[in-house]
Amino acid sequence: MAQERLDEGLAKVQQLFEMPENRQADAMSGAFDTLRLGIVAAKKEESILNGRSKEEMMNAMKVCVMIGQKRKMLKGRCNECLKIVLANKSWVKTALTDAAFIEQIKESLDKDTETIALLDVPAPVAGAPVEETAADGPDEDEGVDPPDVGGYEGPDIVGLLKTGMTNMAKFNWEFPHNPLGTMLDDATGAFQSFFEGLTKLTTTSGGASLNKEPAEVLAVFESDWANLLGFCLSMYQSTARRSYRSRVKFVVVKLQELSPSFNDEVGKRTDVPWITIPRSSWSTLPADVTAEAAEPEVEEAPPVEETRAVEEVVEPAAPIVPKPGVVWVDFKRKAYTTSALTKERGITFMGFHDDPKAPDYQPPDKWFSYVIDRVQDPHNVVDVVIVNKVHMDFVRQVRVFCTALAHAHPRFIVVTRAMAKDFSEDLGIEQDSIVKDWGAAAKLAMEEVGIREVRRAAKREA
Fold first, then answer.
1. What is the pLDDT of residues 362-417, one digit of tens each?
2. Closest residue by Cα to residue 383 from 429, 348, 415, 335
3. 257 occurs within a structural domain
4. What is the span of the domain harbouring residue 248?
5. What total number of domains does the chain contain?
6. Is the pLDDT confidence value at 123 over 60?
7. Are strands 380-387 and 411-415 parallel, antiparallel or unpaired?
8. Is 136 a domain residue?
9. Biased-composition ranges for Acidic residues (predicted)?
10. Taking the alpha carbons of 116, 52, 361, 183 in that order, is the dihedral positive or negative?
11. pLDDT at res. 300
């Protein structure tokens, strides 16, 4: 019976996506109702979720997300369905093939950190190497600095920037709010293209590939700075793309840093929904001192309402207890796959493989997005980021972003055999944050997490 219910629901969804877009809205609620019966039945018979085509799985999840966006009263039911199907590895693997859709799912799930954590892994890549097992004693690769592979081709960067600007202009520089059809995805893709181009442009290798300074490359877009800013602010206000807010801030902050004319445009607006410290202070990065680590901002609980009837007193909401996170970016995959951090259940641990020749390679914009998306997240914070010496551009990007917006800085730990004195003080990395082996990096990371956890607990009790 459960099998038949799910089959019927998936068939209804398939019929829905075969309809013209102008007819989908009327049929979507009925398709979801039928689909939900089948998915709920899968709670008792999990096996019926197996053997589904990628198209069936993706379309079913899309319907759940779209209904939740359109009909707030049904969001709980939609999230219930997402939670059930994402407990199945095949459905998770399918969702991970579409990065933009992953963000929509996270947006829908909101505070369901347990289910969201299932999606916080790099997308699986065919042919990825088998997971290594930890070896006894030090590894010969520990602390060896990876080669500087040169980064990006100039045309790739310029193409991403131009594609983003051209496609944002197609929406009259206003982010759409219609959850049906492809408009949201297309507009998001346009912004993402510009974001990726800007991230690559502001790396040392990216700028070198163009033989130009970043400001010179961006000058061609100056006539549309006001339009771009308008698009970014309208996207920031979109409830369907809240998970992109940190990336929107990065684009605005980075352009303020690189382009005086863009900074002037920001100064003309009265509707910028965040506050930055004076631009002249961004170049001065604070020292990476553990004792001064800032805490993530959380919403304060509402005050207790005064009333004569004791039973009507509204109790303050329980304080948010964030889950600490550690990010590890390394040229050697086994640096993080064999780390003791993989066994730490009290943290969210994320590794990124920075080897362009590897099948599971993740480019810098992916690491950067992951970190800055959690800078303001009161539920998941990144306390520590472990990197190699070649990742100083990434370090600077994150630190300038956090400084400009007065956010907490993660502690950066560098694994390298280079001398600690080789690192310039303007990056704010203390010498005791530079280590020569993976074990020392993991130990230092957990010490930092522990210190910040104690401080957060004290703040909650104050």
1. 888 888 888 988 877 777 889 999 999 889 889 988 988 888 888 888 999 999 88
2. 348
3. yes
4. 157-268
5. 3
6. no
7. parallel
8. no
9. 133-145
10. negative
11. 40
CA distance 3 to 5: 5
Residue 453 belongs to a domain: yes
- Residue type for position 123: A
**Closest to 395 measured CA to CA, from 381, 382, 405, 409:** 409
Domain boundary among 268, 285, 306: 268
Average pLDDT, integer, range 157-174: 94
Specify if 279 maps to a domain.
no
For residue range 199-255, list pLDDT tens digits in order: 888 877 776 777 888 888 999 999 999 999 999 999 999 887 888 888 999 999 999
* 21-27: average pLDDT: 77
- In whole angstroms, give the CA distance from residue 251 to residue 229: 9
What are the tokens at 124?
């699986």
Cα 426 versus chain centre, distance: 26
Looking at residue 286, its pLDDT comes to 55
Residue ending a domain, among 227, 246, 268, is 268
Q: Does residue 67 sit in the same domain as residue 190?
A: no
The side-by-side arrangement of strands in the sheet containing 323-330 is 348-353, 323-330, 380-387, 411-415, 434-435
Nearest CA among 115, 41, 33 for reference residue 74? 33
Pairwise CA distance, residues 184 & 176, whole Å: 6
Structure tokens at 191: 């912004």
Q: Can you state the angle between helices 21-41 and 75-85, rounded to 10 degrees?
A: 60
146 secondary structure, DSSP code = P
pLDDT over 50 (residue 47): yes
Q: In this structure, are residues 232 and 272 in contact, taking their beta carbons and an 8 Å threshold?
A: no
In terms of Cβ atoms closer than 10 Å to its own Cβ (0-12, 13-18, 19+), residue 314 is exposed
Q: Which residue has the higher pLDDT, 306 or 203?
A: 203
> In the structure encoding, which two tokens stand for residue 219, read together?
């000058």
Q: What percentage of the chain has pLDDT greater than the value 90?
A: 32
117, HSE (Cβ side, Cα atoms, 13 Å): 15
Q: What SS3 class is residue 353?
A: strand
Could you tell me whether strands 411-415 and 348-353 are parallel, antiparallel, or unpaired per DSSP bridges?
Answer: unpaired
Q: Give residue 286's identity as a one-letter amino acid code.
A: P
CB 145 within 8 A of CB 390: yes
HSE, CB side, 13 Å, CA atoms: give it for residue 84. 27
